[in-house]
Amino acid sequence: MNSIRKVLLIGGSGFVGSAIASRLAREGIELLIPTRRRVRARHLLPLPTADVVEADVFDPATLARLMVGVDAVVSLVGVLHSRSGAPYGSDFARAHVELPTRIVAAAHQAGVQRIVHVSALGAGPDGPSEYQRSKAAGEAVIRASGPEMAWTILRPSVIFGPGDSFLNLFASLVRRFPLLPLGGAKARFQPVYVEDVADVVAESLQREDAVGQIYEMAGPRQYTLQELVEYVGDLTGCRRPVLPLPEGLAMLQAGFLEMLPVTLMSRDNVRSMRADNVASGPAQPWGRTPTPLETIAPTYLGKANKRCRFAGYQLHRP
Question: What domains sit in the chain, N to C, each tagged with a CATH number?
């Protein structure tokens, strides 16, 4: 695995992909990062080993050209919302199943033998949500890629860090509304730091014992969604009362939110929360120590309220 010198990073301009790009660039690994619009990846241009190119990775011919000369592929593309369908909607199918299928085909054609595929904790063919079922179908494509393909699958829980779309969403909501009706309030999460995910991706590319393995990735502690929202409120100085909603009302709320120009919550998201998003075994592979949420979140959520930026802040635990 130490022969890997150039990596095709598909989905590299997003929140997680940017962290992975920075991590791999520090090791001197050449990066080819396709993006539909180069301007969206301008923050990656200063990376000394990164080549950012405009390309449509859903086009098989384009994908085949991108594969030429690379040693490995990191597959990151994912969407949280989709039009509904059975067993999953078309947007989920396109991003989570069809794209991995095309990645595998293009890799075979170019002779690329290493893939690290980032899936999601809770992925399963019988998952309660279309998102989870489509993620499982994408994993199946990777696992079926043949004995000549050295693959690793990572299943992270919700990912936090500066620029995330999870804690920052709740920070925006608690600043705007005096009361938060919350679906899935008792659902449990085990958030993982984005830099931990980047480290594991980088290490997976080099480790022989990572081949053919599926690793869960989570943080050191579990929290209910309500605890996380209240924590965000404390950090921003805008703690609001949380009103837990039964699933029926949560589905009605999500149905309304789906009609907004930007979807904040969908009915499929509500269905995902029927199953706790926590690790079934070790939080991270190879005996790694996960980064606590409380050491990172105050550095970016607490900036608007210095009273909340004190060392050693811990969530109140019942």
Answer: 6-164+191-217 (3.40.50.720)
